[in-house]
Amino acid sequence: MNEDPLALLPEIILAAVAVAGLLLGSYLPRRKQWPVRLLAALACVGGLAATVAVWGDPVRTVFGRSYAVDVGTNAGRVIVLVAVLLTLGVSAREFRSAPRESEWYVLVLLAALGTIGLTGANDLLLLVAAYLLASIPLYAVAGFAKDDAGTEGALKFYLLGALLGITMLAGATVLFGVGGSTAYADLQKALGTAPAAAVAVGFVGVFAGLLFKMGAVPAHFWIPDVTEGTRPPAAAFLTTVPKIGGVIAAYRLAAAAMTGSHVDWALLIAIVAAATMTLGNLAAFFQRDVRRLLGYSTISQVGYLLMAVAVAGRNELALPSMLLYLGAYAVTNLGAFAVVCALPGRRTIDEYRGLLRRQPWLALSLVVCLLGLVGTPPTAVFAGKLTIFTAALDGGYAWLVVVAAVNTAASLFYYLRWIAPALRRGGGPNPAVPGGWAAATAYVTAAGSLVLGPLAGLALAALRGDLASM
Amino acid sequence: MLSVVVFLPLAAAVVPFAIPRVTDRFVRWWWLAVAAADFLLTIVLWAARPGGDGYAYEVNLRWIPSISSGYHLGVDGLSLPLVVLTAGLFLACAVYSLRQQKRARSFAALFLFLETVSLGLFVALDLILFFVFFDLSIVGMYFVIAGWGHRDAARAALKFFLYTFVGSLALLVGFIALYVTASPHTFDIVELTRQNQLAGGGWAAGLVLLALGVGFAIKTPTVPFHTWLPPAHTEAPAAGSAVLAGVLLKMGTYGFIRIAMPILPDTWRRYAVVFVVVGVVSVLYGALVALGQRDFKRMIAYTSVNHMGYIILAIGAAGMAASSATEARELAVTGAVTQMVSHGLITGALFLLAGVLYERGGTYDLDRFGGLAASAPRFAGLTAAAAFASLGLPGFSGFIAEFQIFTGSLGAAPVATVLAFLGILVTAALFLRAFQKVFLGKPGTPAADLTVAEGVSIAPLLVLAVVLGIFPRFLLDLIEPASRSVLNLLAR
């Protein structure tokens, strides 16, 4: 059999360090929990090294056919681990010497582990298990501060997650029932002869759970409340990392399992994509709270990502473009949140007035990240957007590309509503000195987003490859 | 070589930020030195250009091979005049801004950034590269208007950004459609031109041209996409306006000639009449609305719409299948390119003069001035020269350009051309009226005459306009082979 634990080295590192961190944290004095933070960071670095070491290896599945090790999984690992490192950066000050500091790192690591599981799951049962592992720590992350707003957001998050977890399980059951297997490769062969209505029901059920993970319409209701209510570092993590798992898992489900069926899943995903980007943008238009604005903006970003899922398997640009966009989005979105984390005293757009005067580099990072989210060249998201638009047009979804272009133009409006006061003069006294780590993370992400764009050619070449298909 | 010319300003923009405790004085002179060096380099480009057809100084490197997009640069007779014009106008702005007090370091850095972007756009031979520079020009100009504009700058900048960004996205969709329809897929302009893959493409080709047309028409701008222009110009600082009108508007018309016409020749010919109509409407509407303005800067902004209209008319007429002779159509395209250069020089000068006017009076309102000629003779003289040049008086470059455009278009689109003639009459009226109000009549409050920096920045632009008006051959020799090859491509 192909039960090769070494293939899962990054996942094993994360799991082991999560447990070790929990134990270590309980023996350390409350004010000196930095070793746990260091351990978490080392786990990410170790996981990255283990992933990069096997990057070019041939595509394979391990543990039966349940877990794929291919470009999708590897890219998912890299993006998630980098995102966790950046999250550690933005949360360093917020949780330093907090009563439950080590628990925070452990929850983040476990959620990351579940998310990586989502990206690699090649079997419906493993997908559901990964969904649960990726969700449950996040409920605790959302309500970590134990304040009213955070608890409300966490409750909403939990209820929606529980509901869509059930539909996911039900959908998996239906697909198992008509397909005779839970492995994607078997489903691909079996679904062609299965009754289309049952396949459609099963697919919609499973897909709904993934939509919840990525925060897409109509499972997006938790995003704005959680981003506004929870602590900013938690919001940064919650709006970035779960999406990575959800999007890659949806792509894998579509490309590996559904391509054999006669259900027009691509059209369904395209409609969801259009609805997601449009509703996210419209809702973001007149937000005054920067976190809520960013929350809605992350919803609209998922819409662009889903465009690549809609043309999954139709052309060879779809997968690399989606992975590129995911990486670019993760860095840029965390950058915008890093600025928010660095200025915890400012909550509304108006409070950012005069930022350029007081914190020129932070303001510049904000401008780069927000324009990056719009997709202005030469940032990384531009390269991702360009390739995703190309893949979608090549896949025959011209109308979707037009909708996405209109949405991109519309999104500029609310990002500018935030940028404009930051550049203007005036504003009240500076509420707080910016946090060193969060500000540094903002600079790093802004620079990274600028550098990654012109290097998109290299990134796309590295992300080219097939998904495991057996 | 081209890469050096393009990226020198950007590299230089970093220097004032790298040196600790740099004075504003140093920044301004550094900016001037870099702009001058880059201008000299473009002159060298022109002088040392190898003869023959095709692109000079071509660079073609792999950039994003997955979507066959390359770092492909090159200049020919269409782009080289605009490259030199761009470097020259930025140099003029650097001289003009020697008195810039407000945040000089950021201002200089932004202008150097814009210079790189503008030069890059005119030499780009890859659609993605072109788009990157196209979009960045919008971002750069947004910060210029928002950061250094007048009272209502924030609103005008927002409108400018949103409006032109919509145009750039239409352009992006059009570019991607060109990529997808090409086989093998590519974003390379030269390769796409060679393939001519949408010949006889029916409605799909029409839609692609529509996307490109809207994108470039917003940037140009033509009626009915011009409404962002007057507020942007009115609120922008003088140097920003000069660059916006002199360089950024050319990106739209250049895009038509470089991308839309050669890549979609068949479709262009089919819909050429649309461009002729849009051109004539822009000419007349721009002139008439300019006549009704009391604000000096708004007036010049509308004359820009008028002048850009001539270009659209010319390139539309060049595509008309009517039995007009090849020579006539060649004249039209050459005239269009000449008009781009001429408009850049003259309107750049006019906007800098408008900045001087604002400096003296604190307003652009024509009715608030009078009799300035008595106290500021040099100012009055230069403004008179610029106004006469702009209305197309013989002896100035505008005459050469417009004469070629009219001669070239008359055969293909007689009615439209005759109507466009009226535009000249209206612009003549409005410039004379504005000049009379500000400089003649009974003397009002006296104003200081031009300073050295102002004079040195504005006068050379007008001298060049005169030189081009009297000895246009050296420019036409450069443009004519290129416009001939555009027409050959268009005739496929």
Automatic annotation (TrEMBL), chain A:
<dbReference type="InterPro" id="IPR001750">
    <property type="entry name" value="ND/Mrp_TM"/>
</dbReference>
<keyword id="KW-0472">Membrane</keyword>
<feature type="transmembrane region" description="Helical">
    <location>
        <begin position="265"/>
        <end position="286"/>
    </location>
</feature>
<keyword id="KW-0520">NAD</keyword>
<protein>
    <recommendedName>
        <fullName>NADH-quinone oxidoreductase subunit N</fullName>
        <ecNumber>7.1.1.-</ecNumber>
    </recommendedName>
</protein>
<feature type="transmembrane region" description="Helical">
    <location>
        <begin position="323"/>
        <end position="343"/>
    </location>
</feature>
<keyword id="KW-1278">Translocase</keyword>
<feature type="transmembrane region" description="Helical">
    <location>
        <begin position="157"/>
        <end position="178"/>
    </location>
</feature>
<keyword id="KW-0813">Transport</keyword>
<feature type="transmembrane region" description="Helical">
    <location>
        <begin position="363"/>
        <end position="384"/>
    </location>
</feature>
<comment type="subunit">
    <text>NDH-1 is composed of 14 different subunits. Subunits NuoA, H, J, K, L, M, N constitute the membrane sector of the complex.</text>
</comment>
<keyword id="KW-1003">Cell membrane</keyword>
<comment type="function">
    <text>NDH-1 shuttles electrons from NADH, via FMN and iron-sulfur (Fe-S) centers, to quinones in the respiratory chain. The immediate electron acceptor for the enzyme in this species is believed to be a menaquinone. Couples the redox reaction to proton translocation (for every two electrons transferred, four hydrogen ions are translocated across the cytoplasmic membrane), and thus conserves the redox energy in a proton gradient.</text>
</comment>
<comment type="similarity">
    <text>Belongs to the complex I subunit 2 family.</text>
</comment>
<feature type="domain" description="NADH:quinone oxidoreductase/Mrp antiporter transmembrane">
    <location>
        <begin position="121"/>
        <end position="407"/>
    </location>
</feature>
<dbReference type="Pfam" id="PF00361">
    <property type="entry name" value="Proton_antipo_M"/>
</dbReference>
<feature type="transmembrane region" description="Helical">
    <location>
        <begin position="293"/>
        <end position="311"/>
    </location>
</feature>
<dbReference type="InterPro" id="IPR010096">
    <property type="entry name" value="NADH-Q_OxRdtase_suN/2"/>
</dbReference>
<keyword id="KW-0874">Quinone</keyword>
<feature type="transmembrane region" description="Helical">
    <location>
        <begin position="127"/>
        <end position="145"/>
    </location>
</feature>
<feature type="transmembrane region" description="Helical">
    <location>
        <begin position="437"/>
        <end position="463"/>
    </location>
</feature>
<feature type="transmembrane region" description="Helical">
    <location>
        <begin position="75"/>
        <end position="92"/>
    </location>
</feature>
TrEMBL record, chain B:
<feature type="transmembrane region" description="Helical">
    <location>
        <begin position="299"/>
        <end position="320"/>
    </location>
</feature>
<keyword id="KW-0472">Membrane</keyword>
<dbReference type="Pfam" id="PF00361">
    <property type="entry name" value="Proton_antipo_M"/>
</dbReference>
<feature type="transmembrane region" description="Helical">
    <location>
        <begin position="78"/>
        <end position="98"/>
    </location>
</feature>
<feature type="transmembrane region" description="Helical">
    <location>
        <begin position="340"/>
        <end position="358"/>
    </location>
</feature>
<feature type="transmembrane region" description="Helical">
    <location>
        <begin position="379"/>
        <end position="400"/>
    </location>
</feature>
<protein>
    <submittedName>
        <fullName>NuoM family protein</fullName>
    </submittedName>
</protein>
<feature type="transmembrane region" description="Helical">
    <location>
        <begin position="447"/>
        <end position="471"/>
    </location>
</feature>
<feature type="transmembrane region" description="Helical">
    <location>
        <begin position="29"/>
        <end position="48"/>
    </location>
</feature>
<feature type="transmembrane region" description="Helical">
    <location>
        <begin position="271"/>
        <end position="292"/>
    </location>
</feature>
<feature type="transmembrane region" description="Helical">
    <location>
        <begin position="200"/>
        <end position="218"/>
    </location>
</feature>
<keyword id="KW-1133">Transmembrane helix</keyword>
<dbReference type="InterPro" id="IPR001750">
    <property type="entry name" value="ND/Mrp_TM"/>
</dbReference>
<feature type="transmembrane region" description="Helical">
    <location>
        <begin position="128"/>
        <end position="148"/>
    </location>
</feature>
<dbReference type="InterPro" id="IPR003918">
    <property type="entry name" value="NADH_UbQ_OxRdtase"/>
</dbReference>
<feature type="transmembrane region" description="Helical">
    <location>
        <begin position="160"/>
        <end position="180"/>
    </location>
</feature>
<feature type="transmembrane region" description="Helical">
    <location>
        <begin position="105"/>
        <end position="122"/>
    </location>
</feature>
<comment type="similarity">
    <text>Belongs to the complex I subunit 4 family.</text>
</comment>
<dbReference type="InterPro" id="IPR010227">
    <property type="entry name" value="NADH_Q_OxRdtase_chainM/4"/>
</dbReference>
<feature type="transmembrane region" description="Helical">
    <location>
        <begin position="238"/>
        <end position="259"/>
    </location>
</feature>
<feature type="transmembrane region" description="Helical">
    <location>
        <begin position="6"/>
        <end position="22"/>
    </location>
</feature>
<keyword id="KW-0812">Transmembrane</keyword>
